[in-house]
Specification:
This protein is α+β, with helices and mostly antiparallel strands. It has seven helices and 14 strands. It has helices at about 10-15, 35-45, 75-85, 100-115, 165-175, 230-250, 260-275; strands at about 20-25, 50-55, 65-70, 85-90, 120-130, 135-140, 145-150, 155, 195, 200-205, 210-215, 220-230, 290, 300. A hairpin with a 7-residue loop joins strand 13 and strand 14. Helix 2 crosses helix 3 and helix 6 crosses helix 7.
């Protein structure tokens, strides 16, 4: 039996194309205990650690702030998460730790065997977050799976179409000209699928589908796993080419999917444009504006 206990044929067919809920058993593993989390926090490159805080209004996405955690041990970081309003993101932890690389291999071997889809550009992110914090309304360019390990959280999943996101807005995100977070209307919740995740639950959704997340009243631990398939990479490049066509020529291009020849033409155009814009992959992230305070768990100080 794989890391995901059982796939139905319908689940395997809909993976990456529809909202999908599955069960797993990762939450029982020692690496997600307090000791295991403190250990990986001590070993993960501190300059790559995402440290964030935010307000409590789900509409006020501009309150999302990046910080720093220099000098704190893994145990101190966990204390700050428990007592503060902190969201830690260990992006691509599989690239920095053999244990997480083995976990990534195990997960994707199961996914590929069940679905028949080839996966690559695998980014296993470890999320450790405070009680009652949130991630604002946003979307991701790759495909995403969210695996719940500790605590509970609620995820709202919105269709990847207008009015939840329009083509021009999506293209600007793919071009990295704007943030992945953007304005949200609470009235849209009426059309959203609301999913409550408990330890042992996993959810995935269609590529580029907007979503937002709220934690329950306890520390949360999750895996946010980003990846590509050939179809997902093609879509991302079509969106990139469409964005450049709109920006450069004022076009209003449509999104094609494989095996449409226009999609493959746009794939080639996107690669050519990217070659002419080599600096875009190295753009500075959101600048740090606060630091966690050593000896005062949960407290932050401005930089």
């Amino acid at each position: 039996m794989g890391v995901i206990g059982r796939w139905t044929q319908e689940q395997a067919r809909s993976f990456g194309h529809a909202n999908l809920r599955l069960r797993h058993a990762l939450h029982n593993r020692r690496q997600f205990s307090d000791e295991g989390l403190a250990d990986i926090l001590d070993r993960y490159p501190r300059d790559r650690l995402g440290v964030f805080t935010m307000g409590d209004d789900p509409v006020a996405w501009r309150t999302w702030r990046r910080g720093a955690a220099h000098g704190l041990s893994g145990v101190e970081l966990l204390d700050s998460v428990r007592q503060g309003r902190i969201w830690l993101n260990l992006r691509a932890v599989n690239d920095h730790d053999p244990g997480y690389q083995a976990l990534s291999d195990e997960i994707f071997a199961n996914v590929e065997q069940a679905t028949g889809q080839r996966t690559f550009r695998r980014d296993v992110g470890l999320l450790i977050s405070s009680p009652a914090v949130q991630v604002f309304y946003h979307l991701d360019v790759p495909l995403v799976m969210l695996w719940q390990l500790r605590g509970t959280k609620t995820v709202w999943l919105y269709p990847p179409r207008a009015p939840y996101v329009d083509d021009a807005q999506l293209e600007r995100i793919v071009l990295k000209e704007t943030a992945e977070q953007f304005d949200y209307d609470p009235a849209w919740d009426a059309e959203a699928e609301q999913v409550t995740l408990e330890p042992g639950a996993m959810v995935s959704w269609p590529q580029n589908a907007p979503h937002r997340i709220e934690n329950g009243p306890m520390m949360n631990v999750s895996l946010s796993i980003e990846f590509m398939t050939p179809a997902a990479l093609l879509r991302a490049n079509v969106l990139y080419a469409n964005g450049m066509l709109r920006k450069t020529f004022g076009a209003r291009p449509a999104v094609q999917a494989a095996p449409d020849p226009r999609a493959f033409a746009k794939l080639g155009a996107a690669r050519a444009w990217k070659a002419l814009r080599p600096g875009e992959r190295n753009r500075d992230p959101l600048p740090a504006t606060f630091s966690l305070v050593r000896g005062e768990p949960g407290a932050i100080a401005g930089l």
